[in-house]
TrEMBL record:
<dbReference type="GO" id="GO:0016491">
    <property type="term" value="F:oxidoreductase activity"/>
</dbReference>
<keyword id="KW-0560">Oxidoreductase</keyword>
<protein>
    <submittedName>
        <fullName>Amino acid dehydrogenase</fullName>
    </submittedName>
</protein>
<dbReference type="GO" id="GO:0005737">
    <property type="term" value="C:cytoplasm"/>
</dbReference>
<dbReference type="InterPro" id="IPR036188">
    <property type="entry name" value="FAD/NAD-bd_sf"/>
</dbReference>
<dbReference type="Pfam" id="PF01266">
    <property type="entry name" value="DAO"/>
</dbReference>
<feature type="domain" description="FAD dependent oxidoreductase">
    <location>
        <begin position="4"/>
        <end position="391"/>
    </location>
</feature>
<dbReference type="InterPro" id="IPR006076">
    <property type="entry name" value="FAD-dep_OxRdtase"/>
</dbReference>
């Protein structure tokens, strides 16, 4: 029986472990904590079938000026830590040019088409249907001009990829979400995405399914990874584990580990924050306030307010400005009540400068496989890229062309 160690029990690692197991591999899933407690816990919980095009760096003057002058809350940066992001950001800029973005979009659209079906199979097998709402999500636009642009964009995505959406007038939005105090210029309702009321619990449910099916879940430190008798070994709380293959699925921590093996991997590290509020009148579906880059997501723990991207230093600020602005914007839309937590959660979206996740064999280390860099959509994509990697490791035909996601791509 072929054997693998999967390092990292976020959505990407758990998705991979389940797909390897399904193909007859003996799998040990290793994490230093509980499954789904990091980035895969803290996100907005949307399984984004509409995200057919990866999130490009804004290139138009108006957007860049808004970011540079701090008027956009979608992207926030600290001047003193900007130099640390410059290399990856320049590459991100280059790959966001229209022709390159179009190529990345073709690859992304092919993959994202498999995201919800892959989740559906796992949700059913894991008995996790009560965590998932299949009603889509809405994007509120506060200004008429922004709404017009959004309608045109939704039409473009429908014509090109078949993405389904409905345009809601301010009145229609008010009828759909009576808790809203204002409805701006209306909303786009993306109809096909699903939302999860406790993202970490969904990952835990998938991990429990992996264990029920005979997989081994262990606490261990990925930094102990090294070549071993059968291929690779790692130290865990239950002793040293060896396997012929190892998978690095450590989300934003992946480049740091791989540096030890001589790989220098540029990643755009986009921090995001959230905090839950005890709003008494919750929303029916998640709502993205486009102008503020803020998602208001009804969750089991309350109304989760998440922020856009912050390019900050590694030391997380508590009481961050971007979250404060997001919460002020949310208060303008809803009666928030009091916060559940004093200190907000923060985590890093692991974004690759060329907009696509890294899924495939490590270029110079036989038996070492990579599965990270899912950026803004890792909660959505983990099971689909897990399948793509398991197929590559098993020598099967991949569900989508694998080359755009290859670690060796240029
Ligand atoms: C605010 C915010 C909102 C988001 N909203 C959405 C959304 O609505 N939809 C969507 O699809 N995506 C969303 N994302 C993105 C998504 O959350 C991530 O892309 C995804 O969770 C990454 O999953 P992962 O498994 O790669 O990483 P992680 O979930 O971070 O998992 C990595 C695992 O590695 C483990 N680990 C790290 N270092 C070590 C070590 N040395 N030893 C052992 N274990 C280690 C960690 O404990 C962790 O469990 C959002 C992200 C943020 C920040």
């Amino acid at each position: 029986m072929r054997s693998a160690i999967v390092l990292g029990a976020g959505m990407a690692g758990v998705g991979t472990a389940l797909h390897l197991q399904q193909r007859g591999w003996s799998v040990v899933l290793v994490d230093r904590g509980e499954p789904g407690r990091e980035t895969s816990y803290g996100n907005a919980g949307i399984i984004q079938s509409e995200a057919v095009e990866p999130y490009a760096m804004p290139r138009d003057r108006a957007s860049l000026w808004a970011i540079a002058t701090g008027r956009s809350n979608d992207v926030h940066y600290e001047v003193r830590s900007l130099h640390r992001h410059l290399g990856p950001l320049l590459r991100y800029w280059w790959h966001s040019a229209p022709r390159r973005h179009a190529a990345a979009s073709r690859a992304c659209a092919g993959l994202i088409a498999h995201a919800a079906p892959e989740h559906a199979a796992l949700i059913e097998a894991a008995g996790a249907a009560d965590l998932v709402r299949r009603g889509g999500f809405r994007v509120l636009h506060r200004e008429g001009r922004a709404m017009q642009d959004a309608v045109a964009e939704a039409e473009r995505l429908r014509a090109r990829y078949g993405v389904r959406s409905r345009v809601l007038s301010p009145d229609a939005l008010a009828a759909a979400e009576p808790a809203l105090k204002r409805t701006g210029a209306g909303a786009i309702h993306w109809e096909d995405p699903w939302s999860v009321r406790d993202p970490g619990a969904l990952v835990s449910a998938y991990a429990a399914l992996f264990v029920r099916r005979g997989g081994t879940l262990l606490r261990g430190e990925a930094e102990s990874l090294g070549p071993g008798g059968r291929g690779w070994r790692v130290r865990t709380a239950d002793g040293t584990v060896e396997a012929e293959a190892a998978v690095v699925a450590l989300g934003p921590w992946s480049p740091a580990l791989l540096r030890r093996f001589g790989y220098r991997i540029a990643m755009v590290r986009k921090r995001g924050y959230h905090r839950h509020w005890r709003s008494t009148r919750l929303l029916d579906l998640p709502l993205l306030d486009a102008q503020n880059g803020t998602v208001l997501a009804p969750m089991a723990a309350g109304l989760r307010i998440t922020t856009g991207a912050e390019l900050a230093g590694p030391e997380a600020a508590t009481g961050p400005a971007q979250l404060a602005r997001a919460e002020a914007a949310a208060r303008d839309l809803l009666d928030l009540g009091g916060p559940h937590e004093n200190a907000p959660w923060s985590g890093i979206r692991p974004c690759m400068p060329d907009l696509l996740p890294v899924v495939g064999p490590a270029p110079r280390h036989p038996g070492l496989w990579l599965q990270f860099g899912h950026g803004h959509q890792g909660f959505t994509l983990g099971p689909a890229t897990g399948r793509l990697l398991a197929e590559a490791m098993s020598g099967e035909t991949p569900l989508v062309p694998a080359a755009p996601f290859s670690p060796g791509r240029r």
